[in-house]
Amino acid sequence: EVQLVESGGDLIQPGGSLRLSCGASGFTFNNYWMHWVRQAPGKGLVWVSQIYNDGSDRRYADNVKGRFTISRDNAKNTLYLQMNSLRVEDTAVYYCAREIGPSNKGGTFDIWGQGTMVSVSS
Amino acid sequence: SYELTQPPSVSVSLRQTASITCSGDMLRNKYASWYQQKPGQSPVLVIYEDTKRPSGIPQRFSGSNSGNTATLTISGTQAMDEADYYCQAWDGSVWVFGGGTNLTVL
Predict the structure, then answer these.
(1) Which of B31, B37, B44 minimises the CB distance to A106?
(2) Digit-coded pLDDT (tens) for A15-27
(3) Facing residues of A112 across strands?
(4) Which residues of A touch B49 (CB under 8 A)?
(5) What is the pLDDT of residues A47-76, one digit of tens each?
(6) Side-chain-side CA neighbours of residue A48 (13 Å)
């Protein structure tokens, strides 16, 4: 079964750091671009970050650039998101997602994890 | 920055046709995807590359994309289709979601 399982969410104080993990199974992990998408309580989906299948390129939403770092360990079939200088507005469920069909017209997220909750509060 | 605009809510009577729109500049030049999300659950892909259905998605779900508007159509809407729906596209550098549409089945 194709599956993504996130972990690492927690309650943390503003200014703190946290690392999220996303374990992949059921598919050849190193063939796919991977993403993090977040959803604040009661709000919509917001793209956060993307990484190429070999880790050679990474992209970030403007409001996390310089604070978050996406990485992957293809030997461990695991995606990571290192989050530093956390703010109250980073509070959200964080999903990892697999992208298929990247092209000059864009790709799509076909597999999503169950999400992990990050709460930033004093 | 690129934006995708969806109506916040759409209502449809049981077994009727629901249409949810997604507007963005030159959207016809990009692939639009659609995701269904029920309360407490992760998003599920229902349409990709404007018109394609993943395996396991009922045939009553269809998509189109022309001009500046992509449309998700649900024919013969069932009670189980009540959910939030999000469109998504890539603007060349970042991936963008619409604000979401809450579909109510009456």
Answers:
(1) B31
(2) 999 999 999 999 9
(3) A97
(4) 101, 105, 108
(5) 999 999 999 999 999 999 999 999 999 999
(6) 29
